């Protein structure tokens, strides 16, 4: 069973927010996969109409940028003389780099009326496959290495960078992040917010997100 949180007596890093983001991405990847598997609707049309695609895209961009800017550099600095572990880190960065142009290409295909009809579905399938594999690889190999080699100070810096990148879009992105999360994850995540923002989440952001229904009729069962 993977360790999701527990900033424990042994000083382990609290990865609640990391796994919350991974779970949110997986949740929405299931919706994307459902869209591309349906024979009764054009995937491009469905993705264009779904606010969920924009939220998924933004959440992924923020998460990968925070890792690239603040987590992987710290980890690399702690892995001197460990070529096997450095190779794993390079693989993480390469997987990020492979996903970014797929997302950009899908956005372009969705906005291009002249794009082949099958292209959005093909690109979406590639994103689902690539990101699903990347999240599994990161959790199985990279996060245990992070737990071992990254200091509490470095982890706190990464979490701060991640939070700052989310801040301007928190009214939309935070309810998206916690959609379907368990009570422990919600409590831990909201505990890091100032009281006014926690109240805004409960009374404004969450109700607005509920009204949004980001995947609508394309929601996976």
Please describe what this structure looks like.
With about 220 residues, the protein is mainly alpha-helical. The chain has a single domain (about 15-220), classed as Four Helix Bundle (Hemerythrin (Met), subunit A) (Up-down Bundle). It is about 75% helix and about 0% strand. Helix 1 packs across helix 3 (about 50-75) and helix 7 crosses helix 9. It is globular, with a radius of gyration of 18 Å.
Write the layout of secondary structure elements.
Elements: H1 16-37, H2 43-49, H3 51-77, H4 83-111, H5 119-149, H6 152-167, H7 170-178, H8 183-191, H9 195-212
CATH fold descriptor: Four Helix Bundle (Hemerythrin (Met), subunit A)
Q: Which value, in Å, is the CA radius of gyration?
A: 18 Å
- Contiguous low-pLDDT stretches (5 residues minimum) are 1-9
Q: Summarize the biggest pleated sheet.
A: none
- How much helicity do the residues have? over 70%
Supply the number of structural domains.
1
CATH class: Mainly Alpha
Envelope shape: globular
Oligomer: single chain
Based on the coordinates given, report the CATH architecture. Answer: Up-down Bundle
* Helix-and-strand structural type: mainly alpha
N/C terminus separation: 26 Å
């Amino acid at each position: 069973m993977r360790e999701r949180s527990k900033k424990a007596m042994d000083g382990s890093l609290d990865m609640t927010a990391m796994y919350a983001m991974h779970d949110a991405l997986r949740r929405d990847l299931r919706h994307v996969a459902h869209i591309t598997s349906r024979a009764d609707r054009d995937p491009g049309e469905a993705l264009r109409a779904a606010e969920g695609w924009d939220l998924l895209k933004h959440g992924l961009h923020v998460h990968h940028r925070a890792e690239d800017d603040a987590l992987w550099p710290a980890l690399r600095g702690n892995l001197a003389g460990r070529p096997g572990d450095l190779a794993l880190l390079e693989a993480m960065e390469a997987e990020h780099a492979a996903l970014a142009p797929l997302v950009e290409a899908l956005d372009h295909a969705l906005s291009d009326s002249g794009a082949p009809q099958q292209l959005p579905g093909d690109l979406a399938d590639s994103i689902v496959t690539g990101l699903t594999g990347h999240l599994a690889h990161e959790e199985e190999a990279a996060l245990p290495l992070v737990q071992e080699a990254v200091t509490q100070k470095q982890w706190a810096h990464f979490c701060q960078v991640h939070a700052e990148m989310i801040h301007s879009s928190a009214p939309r992105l935070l309810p998206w992040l916690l959609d379907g999360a368990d009570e422990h994850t919600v409590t831990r995540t909201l505990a890091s917010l100032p009281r006014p923002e926690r109240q805004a989440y409960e009374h404004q952001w969450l109700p607005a997100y509920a009204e949004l229904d980001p995947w609508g009729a394309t929601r996976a069962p």
